[in-house]
Amino acid sequence: MSLPVFLAAEAARAEVGDSLVLGEDVAGHAVRVRRLSPGEELDLVDGEGARARARIAAASAHELSVEVTAVTRTPPSTPALVLVQALAKGDRDLQAIEQATEIGVDEVVPWAAERSIADWPEKKRDKMATKWENLLRAASLQARRSRFPILHGLVRGTRLLAVLTETDRIFVLHESAGTRLSEAVADVRDGQSGRVVLVVGPEGGISEAELAALSAVGATPVLLGPTILRSSSAGPAGLVMAQCALGRW
Known about the structure:
The protein is α/β, with parallel strands linked by helices. It is built from 6 helices and 12 strands. The strands form 2 sheets. Strands 6, 7, 8, 9, 10, 11 and 12 form a 7-stranded parallel beta sheet that branches. A 5-stranded mixed beta sheet has the order 1-3-4-5-2, with helices on one face. Helix 2 runs parallel beside helix 3 and helix 2 runs parallel beside helix 6. The two termini are 21 Å apart. Belongs to the RNA methyltransferase RsmE family. It catalyses: uridine(1498) in 16S rRNA + S-adenosyl-L-methionine = N(3)-methyluridine(1498) in 16S rRNA + S-adenosyl-L-homocysteine + H(+). It is an enzyme of class 2 (transferase).
């Protein structure tokens, strides 16, 4: 059975043989929810690639004493996988980024596209960003990831171009495209520099102005398959194709 995973900043500096004392944020869940006791093992991650395997020496709901038995560090993926997810109604955008995290996305960009029905009003922007951040963290722990996805700030319309770079391979999921994503990513190889960026539009689709702006910086419109997917499933489906092309799956 897989060991339980907990987020702990202490993992970043941990070395084999270290004794760590973890506070109530970890201890409470470990003891009350997971029912862990002395002698059992767990994994501690810092969300930035560090993982420390540790054995519990003493446990209470307020404090957990552990001894580190192994340490690993996961480097950033190259190329990184980026999901530009348009805001969507009915929490479909949240469903998308949760699945994307489980699949292995490295960066997430919330996008208020021109035709997005959902939005983040100025007074609620910080609250919504925190909601996305918390979901990415929870999904990362569920997927036993050592390195969590980076969440970018909200971008609007064609301002999306500001978060893209010249070395990005950009693929825009669009129903009118003539090239399938599976064909377009066939030459992408694990270890290449840069990023693979998948752009998913809102329920109303990507506007002509947005598509033209993305095409002007080298983006390729691509088709997933013969059916139209919802905003909640298009990004995850595209990421699976990218992971397969990279040979990671």
